[in-house]
Structure prediction request, 234 residues.
Amino acid sequence: MEKREKIYEGKAKIVYSTDDPDLIIQYFKDDTTAFNAAKRGTVINKGIINNKISAKVFEFLSSEGIPTQYEQRLSDREMLIKRVEIVPVEVIVRNKAAGSFCRILGFEEGMELASHVLEFCYKRDDLNDPLINEYHIRALNLASEEEVETMKRYTIKINELMSTFLANLNLELIDFKLEFGRYKGEIILADEISPDTCRLWEVGTGEKFDKDRFRHDMGDIEEAYQEVLSRVEK
Ligand code: C5P
Prediction:
């Protein structure tokens, strides 16, 4: 398998083609952004850490029967993945109130929810990924009815699997974002799962081990990400 030309460069990753039309290489950068790129920075070694964490999480989810884009980790910063057509809808799960949920609805961070919340966002950087619902998805033909049902089913299963997996590492999964892709007519899990895309709080103390440390200038970002990796690798 040979690495070929750069196809796309995003905020935190670069994608390269390979000599296999079904496979691409995802390269994890140290660059980090928040609040829809209004805040930018670099977290030393973040790309290496997130590549390793995401590989472990995708391997775990695959072993539990979730179809994913992940093939294998190639190097410190590179991961081989299936080439998918990304569904332009981000799926967010919330187990406790935090982030934009608190900002929009006026609740206290950390508030318990009677049940988990599923949200959809339209994947459009220029519009700051606005919140949408299933009517928008249908009206705008962003995904078929069947694809939405599949994404919801996988998302709820992934929330259960990851919440248990992380609880065993003394981390509480507060919320996270998923992306899905179309591959040979099927919906599969895509992108990455890492402290950039999840809120992870230490059970008991509520200490944050995720991108909120960058968003709110809390310091020790690399150390927090590294701690998540060492727990995931145990
Ligand atoms: O900012 P908000 O509270 O809506 O984020 C919910 C969860 O989704 C957080 O874990 C955040 O890191 C993740 N997220 C993401 N990419 C986005 C939006 C949110 O990974 N574009």
